[in-house]
């Protein structure tokens, strides 16, 4: 058997999957750094903290259109050139440059320079949409459809560990200062582009595709978008509500530890969750995770101790791994094999709408109680579960 024949018979190309995981980690780290410094940078320049919420709503509003647009463009590039890596590499280089430009612009003086900082922030957020959907859609070319959740578990593992940094080492990242922190983020983005380039094969078809779709389905695309909306909105509301529920019981409690625990558990259970999804089916695993998270979110408002909060955080992290592993395989399963970029982009487009809605909801401030926040999160997860379940009856 030739080397090429062996590669085509592999169910998962693990080297390529780990290369893609570095991109996932770089994306997550960049957003962690950006979120930590957003308000500090703007207020340091004399802007109102409310501008941060406005920028996030604007960035995500633009991403609603840009994510599927760039994903679809990458599908066309794939057809024209036989490989979408050029678009991904250009997008990552652009994003790394713009990320570093944010603290560099702060070194200047004058009103015009001051307004360049929020402009650079929006430009950077847009540049991230250039490569995210095209890059993560590559998962469908690195694993057979039946093994996608197992391959995606590696991305969840790396993303969970990186996401935990936002809660566990936030003080250290803030102590670095904007120039060093953003410099690290920029370097990691460039490094991830190099790693993916070294791992990615010259030709894009690395495993035999097993897509059951020949044409795009409006119903299928709508369900992908809806699942992205529900999962992202539920996740954000859950993360926002948890600290407020704990603070209501004990104002001295450090909620970051609990949230960090959630993401660590998410990472640690990613691989076992991927194996479970292979056994029971990806949609069944996602529904199990979404329904379980919805039920647990209803309990957040009634937490009375750190012990109970820790138990809920562990359970949420484990269930969230079932959902996180399944999102990309779910999006890829409802589009033809050669339209993976569009499917992935639509999922992230739904997530961007969720973040815009979350930015609007966050303006409600303290008027939204922990109980209400938990109920909204549960409703969002329930909506996502309906979208995933409904996909079982969509015609091919």
What labels describe this entry?
disordered N terminus; Growth Hormone, Chain: A; 396 residues; 16 helices; 0% strand; mainly alpha
| Number of structural domains | 1
Q: Largest sheet, described in full?
A: none
Overall 3D shape: globular
The overall average pLDDT, rounded, is: 87
Gap between N and C termini? 35 Å
CATH C-level class is: Mainly Alpha
SSE pattern, N- to C-terminal? HHHHHHHHHHHHHHHH
Low-confidence stretches: 1-9
Might you state the CATH topology name?
Answer: Growth Hormone, Chain: A
DSSP summary, beta strand count: 0
Alpha-beta classification: mainly alpha
Query: Architecture, according to CATH?
Result: Up-down Bundle
Rg for CA atoms: 20 Å
Number of helices: 16
Q: Approximately how much helix is present in the residues?
A: over 70%
Beta percentage is: under 5%
CATH level-4 homologous superfamily:
MFS general substrate transporter like domains
InterPro entries: MFS, MFS_trans_sf
Pfam families: MFS_1
GO molecular function: transmembrane transporter activity
Protein name: Major facilitator transporter
Structure in words:
The protein has helices at residues 3-9, 14-44, 50-81, 85-106, 111-136, 139-142, 148-168, 170-176, 178-199, 218-249, 255-268, 270-280, 282-300, 306-333, 340-362, 370-390. The chain has one domain (3-393): MFS general substrate transporter like domains (Growth Hormone, Chain: A), CATH 1.20.1250.20. The longest helix is centred in the first third of the chain and has 32 residues, at 50-81. The protein is built from 16 helices and no strands. It is an all-alpha fold. Helix 3 crosses helix 5 and helix 10 (218-249) packs antiparallel against helix 16 (370-390).
């Amino acid at each position: 058997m030739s080397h090429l024949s062996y590669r085509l018979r592999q169910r998962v190309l693990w080297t390529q999957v780990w290369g893609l995981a570095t991109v996932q980690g770089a994306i997550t780290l960049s957003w962690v750094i950006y979120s930590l410094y957003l308000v500090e940078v703007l207020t340091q320049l004399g802007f109102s903290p409310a501008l941060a919420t406005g920028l996030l709503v604007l960035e995500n509003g633009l991403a609603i259109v840009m994510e599927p647009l760039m994903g679809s463009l990458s599908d066309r590039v794939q057809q024209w050139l036989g490989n979408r890596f050029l678009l991904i590499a250009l997008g990552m280089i652009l994003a790394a440059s713009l990320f570093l430009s944010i603290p560099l612009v702060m070194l200047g003086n004058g009103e015009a320079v001051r307004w360049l900082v929020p402009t650079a922030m929006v430009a950077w957020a847009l540049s991230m949409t250039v490569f995210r959907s095209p890059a993560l859609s590559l998962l469908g070319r690195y694993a057979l459809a039946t093994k996608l959740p197992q391959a995606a578990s590696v991305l969840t593992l790396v993303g969970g560990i990186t996401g935990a940094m936002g809660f566990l080492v936030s003080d250290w990242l803030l102590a670095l200062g904007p120039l060093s922190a953003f410099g690290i983020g920029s370097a990691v983005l460039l490094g991830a582009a190099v790693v993916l380039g070294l791992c990615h094969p010259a030709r894009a078809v690395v495993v035999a595709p097993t897509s059951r779709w020949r044409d795009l389905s409006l119903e299928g695309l709508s369900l992908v978008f809806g699942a992205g909306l529900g999962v992202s909105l539920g996740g954000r509301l859950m993360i926002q509500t948890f600290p407020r529920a704990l603070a209501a019981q004990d104002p001295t409690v450090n909620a970051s530890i609990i949230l960090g625990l959630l993401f660590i558990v998410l990472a640690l259970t990613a691989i076992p969750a991927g194996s479970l999804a292979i056994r029971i089916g990806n949609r069944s695993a996602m529904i199990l995770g979404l329904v379980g998270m919805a039920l647990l979110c209803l309990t957040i408002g009634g937490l009375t101790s750190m012990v109970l909060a820790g138990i809920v955080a562990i359970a949420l992290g484990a269930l969230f791994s079932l959902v996180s592993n399944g999102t990309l395989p779910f999006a890829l399963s409802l589009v033809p094999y050669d339209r993976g970029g569009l499917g992935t982009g639509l999922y992230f487009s739904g997530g961007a709408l969720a973040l815009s809605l979350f930015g609007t909801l966050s303006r409600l401030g303290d008027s939204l109680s922990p109980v209400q926040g938990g109920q909204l999160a549960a409703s969002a997860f329930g909506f996502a579960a309906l979208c995933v379940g409904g996909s079982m009856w969509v015609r091919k």
